[in-house]
Design goal:
By secondary structure, the chain is mainly beta. Helix content is 0%, strand content 51%.
Length: 70
Amino acid sequence: YPNPTRDILNLGISQAFDEVIYTVFDVNGKRVMNGRLSGPSLDVSELVTGNYFLRILQDGVIKTERFVKQ
């Protein structure tokens, strides 16, 4: 949240971040961002306007959410 977002995407994760890996894909399936989380939010300000998918890998569980960058 917020969705749509302009710069910071708050993830709502309250556990330790050192084991959380994120990947952002565009609508064509191209990976545009990835790394390890260092906090409860993700800076997406460098992305161009459009629709994206955020994949979170935490404790062996993969969760995917759609978000809109304005």
